[in-house]
Write a sequence for this structure.
């Protein structure tokens, strides 16, 4: 599999161009500048930490000690020599290839020089079952081996702490280096020549080399033996995990990669699921729509759990329900935030990292997210939807019962209380509050699902109570959100603007998708919100003007709606277009530019990977059509 290099973006800023010139001037003969920042990257991780590796095998993003921590490698957001990265370069580089080990999160990057010499870099974060627990150390493992000839390489390990502000003190031993900062110490265990690594001196690759970067801990056995064992065990874990998935007949490779990516978004220690691994990748070039997504949105997490459940992967749901239960209990019947930190932190103050230029020089770089202060009324419906399966699924080790039902009713009462009142909506508008149809819809979903749980638990009085609220809300939502002028359900009560989130009416079972009003809504949205097959979130300008890029999950909602109303061939065509919009490894970010087809927004976006799974499950031919 041979892949071309990513061309320099036409939207690159003056700062990025200046940085490129500086790299050219300073580079050593035979070793060119690194690839420009792009989303042609692979994700490695172990449900405790993660990293992004670019097309040339350079680790360009890694936060420690957890997903929302300090990016010790920040080159994705800092073009030029000021960025920090872990680079293993081949002299006279000509081309590269990058693939995942089949059905795993182990990434292989092959680099070729102009004379035909080649090396392979194997990247992963160890994860496997050991001593009655999942072993997922704070560690990145890199194995480097020669494939052809006698390649000459250079190891360029440059890491900093405190968002690039603090240069660590480096100490060394015979086979390790320690990076000592005020609040963090990292250790590199390696059988590569320490002197060459410290001085960045090129050398011949005559035998396999191993690099293990992580917590300041010694190894219990040899470096090479440990790295190889960890690789074998990690490959075996992921293959066993994927083997248990219930897959559709078609698009299995795409679904497996999406499922692994979603699994890697789980912070297993607490059960939180992050929306993405990055911060401040703009939604569109120069738009300043740069947000920090390294937190757990209850809305996004529900969709992740639902998608993995459709593949019969229950472990993530069980972990998430543990986290969700703690959120509900901590709220004590009061306000629930739309998002929390992955350790359940409530305060996520938003600030700027001014000394980082941003992705391709497009700042600002944000840390934290002001949306934690928002009132987003759909949150209560998302809690109930996320928890509902625990009352119905007999496979779960810890099934929910009457005690948990009482707790869930407190969330339902909040859904009733906020129903029909203005909020920031699911798109987190910062300067505008309305009675959003999608928020009212989720209040209905909360009442509807609690009623069905009451039926399951044989609590007829409670079932009637919740069914009554659901009926009342359903009638009112249909009446107040319908726009006669637009012949569509509008984004707010009494409004006329269109919003893709209204398509969730069919997905959550609010309306028969064949209802003429829903069919008309889909058609109106295609005319107003779509640029070809790609769908934007809404048509009204927001705090930054009109959106320029398509929001991937909205396109997947459109695919689902088209399939439900009987236009399956059209849905399949759009799905194939979205599959083509993934990067070379099958991963998607948040947004797609309808003209350039380039990916924008934080990466990898769980919403987008959810859409791949949902669309494949909805559209695939059945297994009994071939067996």
């Amino acid at each position: 599999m041979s892949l071309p290099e990513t061309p320099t973006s036409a939207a690159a800023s003056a700062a990025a161009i200046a940085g490129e010139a500086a790299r050219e001037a300073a580079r050593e003969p035979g070793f060119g500048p690194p690839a420009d920042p792009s989303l042609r990257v692979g994700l490695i991780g172990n449900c405790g930490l993660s990293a992004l590796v670019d097309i040339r095998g350079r680790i360009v993003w890694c936060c420690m000690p957890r997903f929302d921590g300090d990016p010790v490698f920040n080159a994705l957001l800092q073009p030029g020599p000021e960025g920090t990265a872990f680079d293993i370069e081949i002299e006279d580089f000509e081309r590269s290839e990058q693939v995942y080990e089949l059905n795993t999160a182990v990434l292989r990057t092959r680099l070729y020089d102009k004379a035909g010499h080649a090396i392979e870099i194997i990247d992963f974060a160890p994860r496997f079952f050991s001593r009655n627990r999942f072993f997922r150390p704070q560690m990145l493992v890199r194995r480097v081996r020669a494939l052809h000839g006698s390649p000459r390489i250079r190891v360029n390990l440059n890491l900093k702490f405190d968002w690039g502000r603090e240069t660590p003190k480096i100490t060394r031993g015979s086979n390790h280096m320690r990076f000592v900062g005020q609040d963090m110490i990292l250790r590199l265990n390696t059988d590569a020549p320490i002197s060459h690594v410290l001085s960045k001196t090129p050398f011949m690759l005559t035998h396999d080399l191993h690099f293990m970067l992580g917590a300041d801990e010694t190894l219990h056995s040899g470096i090479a033996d440990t790295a190889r064992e960890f690789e074998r065990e990690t490959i075996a874990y992921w293959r066993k995990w994927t083997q248990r998935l219930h897959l559709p007949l078609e698009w299995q490779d795409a679904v497996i990669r999406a499922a692994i990516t979603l699994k890697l978004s789980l912070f297993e220690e607490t059960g939180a699921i992050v929306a993405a691994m990055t911060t401040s990748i703009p939604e569109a070039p120069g738009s300043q729509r740069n947000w920090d997504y390294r937190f757990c949105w209850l809305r996004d997490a529900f969709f992740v759990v639902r998608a993995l459940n459709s593949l019969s992967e229950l472990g993530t749901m069980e972990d998430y329900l543990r986290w969700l239960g703690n959120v509900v209990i901590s709220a004590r019947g009061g306000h629930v935030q739309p998002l929390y930190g992955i350790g359940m932190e409530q305060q996520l103050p938003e600030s700027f990292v001014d000394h980082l230029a941003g992705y391709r020089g497009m700042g600002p770089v944000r840390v934290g997210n002001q949306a934690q202060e928002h009132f987003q009324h759909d949150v209560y419906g998302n809690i109930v939807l996320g928890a509902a399966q625990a009352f119905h699924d007999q496979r779960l080790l810890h099934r929910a019962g009457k005690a948990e039902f009482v707790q869930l009713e407190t969330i339902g009462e909040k859904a009733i209380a906020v129903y029909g009142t203005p909020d920031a909506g699911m798109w987190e508008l910062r300067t505008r509050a309305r009675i959003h149809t999608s928020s009212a819809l989720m209040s209905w979903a909360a009442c509807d699902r609690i009623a069905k749980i009451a039926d399951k638990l044989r609590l007829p009085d409670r079932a009637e109570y919740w069914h009554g609220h659901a009926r009342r809300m359903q009638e009112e939502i249909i009446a107040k959100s319908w726009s006669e002028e637009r012949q569509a359900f509008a984004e707010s009560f009494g409004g006329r603007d269109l919003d893709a989130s209204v398509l969730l009416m069919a997905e959550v079972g609010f309306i028969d998708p064949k209802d003429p009003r829903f069919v008309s809504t889909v058609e109106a949205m295609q005319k107003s919100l779509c640029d070809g097959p790609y769908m934007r979130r809404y048509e009204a300008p927001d705090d930054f003007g009109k959106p320029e890029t398509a929001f991937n999950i909205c396109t997947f909602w459109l695919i689902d709606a088209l399939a439900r109303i009987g236009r399956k061939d059209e849905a399949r065509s759009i799905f194939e277009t979205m599959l083509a919009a993934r990067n070379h490894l099958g991963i998607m970010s948040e947004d797609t530019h309808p003209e350039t087809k380039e990916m924008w927004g934080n990466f990898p976006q769980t919403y987008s990977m959810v859409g791949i799974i949902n669309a494949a499950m909805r559209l695939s031919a059945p297994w009994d059509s071939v067996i």
User: Anything to note?
Assistant: The first strand starts at residue 41 and ends at 45.
